[in-house]
Amino acid sequence: MALVPVSGTLGDFGGSVDISQHPRIKFQPNGPAVGANGILLSDPVYVDTFTGPSRSWSVMLECTDALWRTTGGDVFYIVTLERTPPGGVGFPTDKPGWTLRTPPGGGEFAALVRAPSNPAQVWFGPEPPSDPTQWTGWVKTDALPGEINYFEWED
Asked: What pTM, to 2 d.p., does this model score?
């Protein structure tokens, strides 16, 4: 198993994140996984240090390309943003539905993160969307006469 660097800025989350609420980014593996040299437990990794005016950050995460879930399927990190409100009571959490797969060599967060598509979105083209979310529609533009040309994901 190999750790790879992932870096970004708080601006990658859109809008302005209020630094006075002590934000922290949580990278939670989607379950335990195995690799050639060990086991990745589903313990989260946190980023709570942001530097400079752009609020940049960096973290070392396991390369997910060479891991396999113990229950089958792809390995990825679930990304959430937590905050500590004034008074320090509770951790409000934003769960945008983002997933992160980390290739060998790592990279920039904005280029690696996968965000769900708009549920009211309809794709047009010969190929279906690569990562549709619930209720995403697809109009197959190269359908033959009489062939079904509209598809919608329910799960």
From this structure: 0.72
